[in-house]
């Protein structure tokens, strides 16, 4: 057994104080996201973990890319027939998680998910590189396939088919809007006395509280 007891890091880069935070968590997210996006040490600030609950009651987590955020919530795109899509169909609640270790920050978001309007999915789909569009058509995401060649052969066929024409967005591929009802901001601090500020939606207002680390 490898002993990891002595692997420790001192957190001391910043602080999260009530007098300095935004009253709206989306605005607070924007400030932190801009910091992460501008950091040369973070290659994909929009990478986030999305956890859903499957039929056996066990959560399942995977990394996806945040593609937009508005005052309504957070948008990402996927295959609706994937394991995450089926999980969301059965249980619309999910947890989003951002972790930016170089800033010693993380954000945990509990949200209700809903499909975005089809025109938004169309617009984003056709903004992607053609290879990515074809990949979305080729892959029966989360389904068992015989081998790697199955995907590569199908891709070659579709590259010829759509060589001089637009790739239509598959009906089973599109976006989700995660409407948050709880957002926690975590800032690492010395002596493990980290800052945890949580926003909880009550009716139409956000209640702000501090949690013990």
Topology of this protein?
Elements: H1 25-38, E1 47-53, E2 59-65, E3 68-69, E4 74-79, H2 83-90, E5 93-100, E6 105-115, H3 118-127, H4 130-138, H5 148-161, E7 173-187, E8 195-202, E9 205-211
Helix pairs in contact: 4-5
Characterise the protein shown here:
This protein is of the alpha+beta class and 213 residues long. 26% of the residues lie in helices and 33% in strands. It is built from 5 helices and 9 strands; from the N terminus they run αββββαββαααβββ. It has helices at residues 25-38, 83-90, 118-127, 130-138, 148-161, and strands at 47-53, 59-65, 68-69, 74-79, 93-100, 105-115, 173-187, 195-202, 205-211. Strands 1, 2, 3, 4, 5, 6, 7, 8 and 9 form a 9-stranded antiparallel sheet that branches. A hairpin with a 5-residue loop joins strand 1 and strand 2. Helix 4 (130-138) crosses helix 5 (148-161). The chain is globular.
Given as residue ranges, the uncertain stretches (5+ residues, pLDDT < 50) are: none
> Can you give the helix content as a percent range?
25-40%
Q: Beta-strand percentage? A: 25-35%
Task: Give the number of helices.
Answer: 5
Report the end-to-end length measured between terminal Cα atoms.
Answer: 29 Å
Backbone shape: globular
The sequence of SSEs as H and E is HEEEEHEEHHHEEE
Could you describe the largest sheet, including whether it forms a barrel?
9 strands, antiparallel
DSSP strand tally = 9
Category by helix and strand content:
alpha+beta
Average residue pLDDT: 96
What is the alpha-carbon Rg in Å?
A: 20 Å
């Amino acid at each position: 057994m490898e002993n990891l007891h002595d692997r420790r890091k001192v957190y001391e880069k910043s602080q999260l104080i009530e007098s300095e935070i935004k009253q709206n968590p989306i605005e607070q997210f924007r400030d932190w996201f801009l910091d992460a996006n501008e950091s040369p040490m973070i290659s994909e600030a929009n990478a986030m973990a999305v956890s859903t609950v499957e039929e056996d009651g066990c959560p399942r987590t995977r990394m996806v890319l945040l593609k937009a955020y508005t005052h309504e919530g957070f948008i990402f795109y996927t295959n609706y027939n994937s394991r995450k899509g089926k999980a969301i169909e059965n249980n619309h609640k999910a947890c989003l998680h951002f972790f930016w270790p170089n800033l010693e920050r993380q954000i945990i978001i509990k949200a209700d998910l809903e499909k975005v309007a089809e025109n938004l999915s169309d617009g984003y789909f056709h903004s992607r590189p053609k290879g990515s569009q074809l990949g979305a058509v080729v892959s029966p995401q989360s389904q068992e396939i015989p081998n790697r060649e199955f995907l590569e052969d199908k891709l070659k066929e579709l590259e010829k088919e759509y060589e001089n024409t637009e790739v239509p967005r598959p009906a089973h591929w599109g976006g989700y809007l995660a409407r948050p009802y709880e957002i926690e901001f975590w800032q690492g601090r010395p002596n493990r006395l980290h800052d945890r500020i949580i926003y909880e939606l009550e009716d139409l207002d956000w209640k702000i509280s501090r949690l013990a680390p």
